[in-house]
């Protein structure tokens, strides 16, 4: 018999937003980003959460829905994405998402085109297919690069991908504060207590916020729903990739692909979605809404808009 989890999984929508996506826990996100980006940005002292839903410049343009989107005191933008399962064109999507904070910096009238830096961070619960035989490099930092000079050509656009399955250090092997963060992200759900090596105050707070026993009944229900979505999603999508069955079909948000949650959801919410699939998404959203799941979680899960969910 499986012992009930003591701590939430950061790889669920509920868990990630609970730990990093609200004002009371902003210091957790700041500490993590400082460990990840200090060499690039210097010390981040303040963050402002921005709308996670970004619209294109025209009514017909596509939109982006980030897991987290924030800005530091220097006006630099940070997109933080938690990717639960393999997805075709994930790199393409992360590049596309980064164009929104770039375009938003355009000023009316006479403008010199000076831009603030944009950082796109992907915390991945999978390994890139092209990197699956490289077991050593899990931390990818990508910038525009001049092949002729072997130097960075432009340093204001940075993409960071963390392939978490490749991080295999045990508690006794942890050396840096950053490694402790990676260890927590990967293992939190399976821990029964705070490890002896993670005694810093920031981790004391994280473990307190992650303890399921501290949640209300509504929060627990929301977490359980989010956990089921995550597990169904990962099992169905990863299995399909391993069996070679997807063949480019997984192009929408991975959060909309949990086959066990609804009929037709494995294709995401691409344009031209068949009417039957649309109805399946609406049906799933209605069930989640009746279960008391937060609207933002339903948006992340189904790809439907807030208005569509509110109208149910």
TrEMBL record:
**Highest taxon above the source species:** Bacteria
State the UniProt keywords alphabetically: Cell projection, Cilium, Flagellum
Q: What is this protein called?
A: Flagellar assembly protein H
């Amino acid at each position: 018999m499986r012992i009930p989890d003591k701590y939430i999984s950061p790889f669920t929508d509920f868990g990630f937003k609970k730990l990093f996506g609200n004002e009371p826990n902003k210091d957790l996100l700041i500490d993590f980003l400082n460990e990840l980006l200090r060499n690039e940005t210097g010390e981040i002292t303040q963050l402002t959460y921005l709308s996670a839903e970004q619209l294109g410049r025209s009514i017909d343009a596509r939109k982006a829905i980030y897991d987290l989107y924030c800005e530091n005191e220097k006006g630099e933008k940070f997109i933080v994405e938690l990717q639960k399962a393999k997805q075709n064109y994930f790199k393409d999507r992360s590049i596309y998402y980064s164009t929104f904070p770039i375009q938003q910096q355009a000023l009316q009238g006479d403008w010199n085109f000076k831009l603030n830096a944009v950082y796109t961070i992907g915390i991945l619960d999978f390994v890139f297919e092209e990197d699956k035989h490289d077991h050593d490099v899990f931390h990818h930092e990508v910038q525009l690069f001049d092949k002729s000079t072997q130097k960075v050509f432009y340093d204001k656009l940075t993409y960071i991908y963390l392939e978490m399955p490749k991080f295999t250090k045990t508690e006794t092997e942890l050396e840096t504060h950053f490694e402790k963060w990676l260890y927590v992200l990967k293992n939190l759900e399976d821990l029964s207590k705070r490890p002896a090596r993670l005694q810093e105050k920031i981790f004391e707070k994280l473990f307190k916020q992650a303890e399921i026993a501290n949640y209300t009944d509504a929060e627990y229900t929301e977490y359980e729903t989010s956990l089921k979505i995550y597990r169904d999603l990962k099992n169905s999508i990863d299995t399909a990739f391993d069996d070679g069955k997807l063949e480019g079909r997984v192009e929408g948000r991975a959060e909309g692909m949990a086959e066990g949650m609804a009929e037709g959801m494995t294709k995401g919410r691409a344009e031209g979605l068949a009417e039957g699939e649309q109805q399946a998404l609406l049906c799933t959203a209605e069930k989640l809404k009746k279960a008391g799941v937060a609207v933002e979680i339903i948006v992340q899960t189904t790809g439907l808009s807030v208005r569509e969910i509110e109208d149910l």
